[in-house]
């Protein structure tokens, strides 16, 4: 090879989930793998009407280069929307990004050096690990439970060997992959602990609007504005193909994030920004998002019932109160990655949980998505998975805790 790769290129790895999704494209596979919103929730007619209006009323502006910060009316909408959730945000703090995944990338570029430490939950979002990795940080896990990171673990994790962590990356609402949602008491305790040790927070919230029974507690950023960067997304409430998200940053950090954005892609596609603003500016989400919640809640219930019916004894899970995922612990010592080919052969796919750990992978865990299959397909998929598990367990001695 005549090309010499940068050292950071060696840190770039393919997404395990994307590789699995290639397998699920085979005809007849029932996929519980992808974290994809249901395409049946996409507001096609609203988008069609908005696109026609934007191209009719502002075609030159919509198709031209634009400000790197983002479309001003959309930034104002984001600030007002977050204000209703208890945050104090000015439009000047809002940076429109090409999906919230770009927000993770920008934060990594601005805040991480080679060898610097970053803290994450255990487990955590695989895409964040991918975004941070090219900056060559040391990624450490914070002890976590069913309510998220444990506040008492922050003091020890923040400073190790004289090296202070740059930030804690956390998903308080219906976390990917576990589906857990942080209680109000845990949020308060976590912010208090982070402030006490001077540990900034990177709060990622792509799923917060997808609650089923009651909305989650206010964001961490509402409790510590100057110490928290907040990431949001339109992918789960409108359509992921638009690649539209946003970063809300403290004033001290905003200029550097903006410069990183300019270097990355100049600006997020302005046509997409104007299109989304036209759709949402008069309250469309107030009626649209509840239809998504109702649909996903029914699918959640279908998966909960199917898991109870078909998974063998020894499997454990918590029922999510929102979001898109179940997190299942299989009986030890089953290795979910080794189980996957057998499951695909039987006609069902899932994501092995080990990929979501930065340090100490739990090989017997799996993530199951419930939003892209109809309830009757969920029933069939879980039945197939349960059948494969029972066959493996019949030949595998189970370890008792």
Outline the fold blueprint.
Blueprint: H1 16-24, E1 30-31, H2 44-57, H3 59-62, H4 72-83, E2 94-97, H5 100-111, E3 117-120, H6 126-132, E4 138-141, E5 144-145, E6 148-149, H7 154-158, E7 159-160, E8 163-164, E9 168-170, H8 184-197, E10 201-204, E11 228-233, E12 245-248, H9 254-265, H10 270-280, H11 284-310, E13 316-317, E14 325-329, H12 336-346, E15 348-349, E16 351-352, E17 365-369, H13 375-395
Parallel strand pairs: 1-15, 3-4, 3-9, 9-10, 10-11
Antiparallel strand pairs: 2-12, 5-6, 7-8, 11-12, 13-14, 14-17, 16-17
Describe this structure in words.
- The protein has helices at residues 16-24, 44-57, 59-62, 72-83, 100-111, 126-132, 154-158, 184-197, 254-265, 270-280, 284-310, 336-346, 375-395; strands at residues 30-31, 94-97, 117-120, 138-141, 144-145, 148-149, 159-160, 163-164, 168-170, 201-204, 228-233, 245-248, 316-317, 325-329, 348-349, 351-352, 365-369.
- It is of the alpha/beta class and 401 residues long.
- Helix 11 (284-310) packs parallel to helix 13 and helix 12 (336-346) packs across helix 13.
- It is globular, with a radius of gyration of 21 Å.
